[in-house]
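Fold this sequence, please.
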Amino acid sequence: MHPLRTRFKKEIVAEFLPPFRRTQGKPLMSRRPTRNRVIIFCPGLHGGPSKSGLLEFWAKKGYWTFAFRYRGTWESGGRFLQYSHENDVLDIVSQLSRGFVSIPERKCYVVRPDSTFVFGVSFGGAAALLAGGDPRITKVVAFSPVVDWRDHVQRGHTLDWSRRFTREGFGDAYRFSDRDWAKLKTGTFFNPVTRIHALDGKKMLIIHAQDDKIVRIQPTARFAKKTGATLVMLRRGGHGSSSWFTKPQLSKRIVKFLRNTS
């Protein structure tokens, strides 16, 4: 099943799939308002923007699934890092119940979710954790998240190195100014550790491998302890990627976490 495509707030391009009917094996394509469970996927940096396999995997489990491009990246409009990117997630949440139009079919969908989950990996883990501070977000799942931009460096992957790599390796796929990128160094911009007081650890499941060579696990462990988040430390696995969301053992753990409302 090929994902559908839409645009939120006139800037944020996203792919999406409605939930599949369990009895017929077909996706729900109703234009009528629907109450259901929603998953919004926050990507990491430098990966391919299309997440069709990920969307289909979770749509078959009965979720509306959305994978978007941050403002200022890939097909989305705007400027990358101009604003803290959990706002991209929350703008999508705001529009779901107001309706969004698939491209190019021009079909209008309205989703009024009773549960909204945000999944994120690496850079996207920061977006997911910060979005979790909004009461409309039911739960958050983050793989290898950056929780503190001032304390995540591993094997030379400094913010300056990442800026050069992003600009030289991806060109206009990431459109940002040096001034906006430098905001990450302040520790006050797009940084989960500075928002601990506003985050509910009971809503957060964090999974991080001890041998991650890109994002250090130590800041994540401290963050989880301070917030009371559930932390699963893997002995091996390296740096998390979106493929982790479809691994059988991890996906079972995630489903159990999402269903547990206590």
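The radius of gyration is 18 Å. The beta strands are 4-8, 12-17, 37-42, 63-68, 100-103, 108-109, 115-121, 139-143, 204-209, 230-234.
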